[in-house]
Amino acid sequence: MPTATFDPAHVGHVVGLIESSLADHKAEDLVSIDLAGKTDYADAMVIASGQSARHVGALADHLVEALKGVGLRPSVEGAAQCDWVLIDAGDVVVHLFRPEVRAFYNLEKMWGLPSVPAPARGTLPDGALSPAVVTPAMSSAAAATGPGLMVATR
User: Fold this and answer.
1) CB 18, CB 45: distance < 8 Å
2) Cα gap 130→68, rounded to integer Å
């Protein structure tokens, strides 16, 4: 069986398709991160926000259809609640968040990029997220079964 090799042109094409689909459907704060040589599970990561759970779900649906249209078979996690949807497109992993959830997990900081500012709605004067914003999305059940576990494992 032939071994898989890193093809930057393929990864670049997939990232371009993902960015285009997300931009066309009004995703916010789109960030692409080159992971080549930094991790075993992907060569690139794309992170974006939707305005609401419904918007995150629609972004995910449109993106999955676009990826299928070029012959990829992406797997999807978190689509039931749409607070955080992870789409594994093979060499590229996509994280779609509601803004409050994205600010809480702050994946950009983990990869050495500037943090995404927390949304103004639901914040306390000192900048901390209020419990009303954090609690529903961060319940222990959601944290234990959410798509974040895929990122931490190989």
Assistant:
1) no
2) 39
